[in-house]
Design goal:
Rossmann fold, alpha/beta, 37% helix, 235 residues, 5-stranded parallel β-sheet, 20% strand
Length: 235
């Protein structure tokens, strides 16, 4: 049985979602704000977090940030009625599994919760927005969350949570071929990097795999599955 944490200052809304998830056979803890959520997160590990974005005292981006400091492997989703919410950018830098609208699509929520993986964050370093979006969605189908960068300099602004693996193009704006990979590994020593590129040059460092564009998505996901299964146990 899985156990999830729902954070929303609207207690009735949170309890309604919790009851739906409980009816599907899992457990849910409810917090009305970030402070209460932190207390709960320090007492046990949850399989996923679902938080509202707009709340008094501590918004959803801050909730994700602070809970990830307590439990770095926690998969996180946010719910918002404001698609243009400025705080979403900050939340996305933490690596979200999904951003869901209000009212929440229940079927989609249950599907995402069931597939959410602890310690499942992947860094996607790709300057083609269409390719980046496709990779992020493909990862989501396997329960992996993504944090993205589109240039060499953006690799240094990735969120503070360590990914378990990275997908990295060799040619990106802001530096010579392979520079993004070098900076990524310098920031996260020992990070397994799968090169996904159409550039024929050799990667500057040893990589965990290489896929030439256009690539077989299923094979790429299978390679990530193997890396996830082989990752060191969380402390």
């Amino acid at each position: 049985m899985r156990h999830y944490l729902v954070v929303d200052d609207n207690r009735d809304f949170a309890e309604n979602l919790a009851e739906i998830v409980r009816d599907a056979g899992d457990e849910v803890s409810v917090a009305e704000g970030g402070a209460e959520a932190l207390v709960l997160a320090r007492s046990r590990r949850f399989d996923a977090l679902l938080t509202d974005m707009r709340m008094p005292f501590m918004g959803g981006a801050e909730v994700v940030h602070h809970l990830r400091r307590v439990d770095p492997g926690l998969p996180a989703m946010v719910v918002t009625a404001h698609a243009a919410d400025d705080d979403l950018a900050a939340a996305r830098r933490e690596g979200l599994l999904a951003v869901l609208p209000k009212p929440v699509p229940v079927g989609r929520l249950l599907e995402l919760l069931a597939g959410a993986r602890r310690d499942g964050l992947v860094a996607v370093v790709e300057d083609d927005p269409h390719q980046s979006d496709n990779l992020t969605e493909a990862l989501r189908t396997r329960g992996f969350a993504a944090v993205t960068a589109a240039s060499v300099t953006e690799t240094e602004r990735l969120g503070p949570v360590r990914p378990f693996a990275a997908l990295c193009d060799l040619r990106l704006p802001g530096g010579p071929d392979g520079e993004a990979m070098r900076r990524l590994v310098a920031r996260f020593p020992g990070l397994p990097v799968i090169v996904v590129s159409g550039v024929p040059a050799d990667p500057p460092l040893a990589c965990a795999g290489r896929f030439e564009k256009p690539f077989d998505t299923a094979a790429l996901l299978a390679a990530l599955e193997r890396l996830h299964a082989a990752r060191p146990p969380a402390p």
